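Entry type: protein chain
Record version: 2
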Amino acid sequence: MWTIAYVARLPGIEAPPPIVGVLLLVVLAFGALLAGRSPNTRRGVLAGLDASLIAGVVSLLFFGAWVADRLKDGAPAEIPYAWLTAPGWLAFVALVGAVAGAIGGATNPAKNSNPATALSSRDWLGRFAIIACISVVPLLAIGGVVTSEQAGMAVPDWPTSFSANMFLLPLSKMTGSVFLEHAHRLFGSLVGLITLVLVVWTAIVDRRRAVLALGATVFVLISAQGVLGGIRVRENSQALAAIHGFTAQSFFALMCVFAATLSRNWRSLTRLEGGGFERKLCVAAFAAVVVQVALGVVARHFDTSVHGAMGHAGFSVVALTLILAICFRAQHTLSGAAPIKRVSKGLMHTVLLQMVLGALALWQVLVHRQSDPLSEVLLATAHQVVGALVLALTSLLMMWIFRATQGGSNADRITPLAGSV
């Protein structure tokens, strides 16, 4: 819902509010219907109700901005019975969710399935971890747009926004660069909330010490990332902006690793013989990708000349060679582990896509050195997001290889990547 609202209200698009509202309700109803059709759901109405109310409560973050916009001139008469708006909204989304959940439950093909096949609480935690990872992707894209449009200082104060509470900034002020930067802050808050829920849920359901430590690291990193972004604004520091961009991609990679440790496959992975060479090769590929990401950050934030882009492009050959080498090697020698096979195949396709995007972005730099067309912003942002995916997949592949090729059956063992990211 948030992503659709962001895209629909981007400068240059700015779809009318009624259209945006219809799109959001369609997504809400579809989500509630899916919740009602869950294989573990016996009562579709309650599942849809839960899903819609959670989305409705989170969306109240925008309700304060809507009220503030109408009270900015001190005219509360403009919104009579404003106190009924929030509960009225929640009642409305609850009704939509309950109806959609009931439809989903009535058409649920697994509603009479064997209870023995039901997912456990740890399985649901693993699924939510995947959702948490997916939620970071829009934030990476929005941050990329902010960098491309040089809108990082559009809102010059923090933790307030133009001296107002961040969640009470009037909607009328969210235009142009202010919209881009303020939306980045709001999405960052959403990802922080999702991460908090994931870490708390993990502490309740999964008591493995190494997993708890990794979860704590994830939460500390997202908290530090938010503070770092705020200090970057207060100090107007380009160096902190670059660090903020690098740690954002590192956080995404660590979140993906964390989600992998919470999965059923992690606990039941078959051990493989050997793998020493593959472990070393994957560590080398991971190191090359980290360097490549750092060079990309430097090129984006400091050296925007052709020389910076060419240096970033030149080292990409090293990273590409090592990634393809470990992917081919993993497919050939470690295919007995399904996660390794899937991740290596996905990484191979992703890094090839990244090379295409990088070539197009470099062409844009060489041809449009004095302009900032929409295509350049889209290419640069896509290149950054796919680069984060390459880092995450390389991290995952290294984790799975270490997991599958180390001896023993200690389910708590987590490789040193958690610290290195």
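Comment: The CA atoms of residues 128 and 198 lie 7 Å apart.
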